[in-house]
Design a protein that fits this description.
Blueprint (H helix, E strand, L loop, with lengths): L10 H6 L13 E5 L4 H12 L3 E6 L2 H13 L4 E5 L5 H15 L4 E4 L14 H29 L3 E6 L11 H20 L5 E8 L2 E2 L8 H4 L12 E2 H12 L10 E4 L21
Parallel strand pairs: 1-2, 1-4, 2-3, 4-5, 5-6, 6-9, 7-8
Length: about 280
């Protein structure tokens, strides 16, 4: 873990994190990770790179995704990167097509791209609400559908892992993303049934308070509630989420579809974080 002045892992941390998986687990496979320029997406992409995968990565910030791609290449992976938004279905379709053109196919899609901001729900603007829903729900759907259509048309199997959130008890302070992520989870369960005849598996990973550099965007009083959010009394880390993604993408999960794997230290049974800081009404 990095020092107290910075949240999350450094690139050297990502390079050296221990893993339970063998180093050639995804050799010859192609994995697409969205939102791979930082945080959970970059950690997941780094693990897949270390496990032998070819990578297609994308993100909105061109400079950031280019730097991430260079780092992933340093891990030995063949990497293509694209600067784009998943809100645009045409850009999404082009991305999926590029993956097929470059690597001859796609084996795994990890939908990590998303975004939100801490705010009391009563103060959401229409623009703010729509921005979160359009990215986290609609954008994820565009990626899922575009990949599934290519797999269907090619007669190829596929696996999708959607990063959602630990929304089981609600997410006060970021209610817009709770709505979007819950939508993704139940969309995933629905199409897991529809797409089973196509040999496409769809699962979700629901992180609780897993530390990334994204912690830095929240108020200090909000971050202070994170260690109180679960009975382990600590935050998780990006490697916890990356290994969950690898598990669901690998043959280890060949008989798992429509599932939500919650990685939260028991948060769903214990308590809730407040990204905006816990209001006085709820302090004991």
């Amino acid at each position: 873990m990095t020092d107290d002045s910075k949240f999350g892992f450094t690139e050297n941390d990502l390079r050296t994190q221990p893993t339970v998986f063998r180093s050639d687990l995804f050799a010859g496979k192609t994995v697409l990770v969205s939102g791979a320029g930082s945080g959970l997406g970059k950690a997941a992409a780094a693990l897949f790179a270390r496990l032998g995968a070819n990578l297609m990565v994308c993100g909105r910030d061109g400079a950031k995704i280019a730097r991430a791609a260079d780092f992933l290449r340093s891990l030995g992976a063949t990497v293509e990167h694209r600067a784009m938004t998943i809100r645009d279905p045409d850009q999404v379709a082009a991305l999926i097509g590029d993956a097929w053109d470059r690597f001859g196919g796609l084996d795994v899609l990890v939908n990590n791209a998303g975004g939100q901001f801490p705010q009391a729900a009563i103060d959401f603007t229409v623009k703010g609400w729509n921005a979160v829903i359009d990215t986290n729900l609609n954008g994820t759907w565009y990626m899922m559908q575009a990949a599934a259509r290519r797999w269907r048309d090619a007669g190829s199997p596929g696996a999708i892992v959607n990063i959602v959130a630990d929304f089981w008890r609600g997410m006060p302070g970021i209610a817009h993303t709770a709505a979007a992520r819950a939508g993704v989870a139940y969309l995933s369960k629905s199409v897991a049934v529809e797409w089973a005849p196509l040999n496409i598996r769809i699962n979700c990973v629901a992180p609780g308070c897993c530390e990334t550099e994204g912690f830095g965007v929240y108020p200090a009083e909000g971050v202070a509630t994170y260690a109180q959010s679960n009975p382990m009394r600590r935050a998780g880390d990006a490697q916890d989420v990356a290994e969950a993604c690898a598990y669901l993408a690998a043959p280890s999960a060949k008989f798992i579809t429509g599932e939500v794997l919650t990685v939260d230290g028991g948060q769903q049974m214990w308590g809730d974080p407040w990204p905006t800081g816990r209001p006085d009404w709820f302090k004991l």
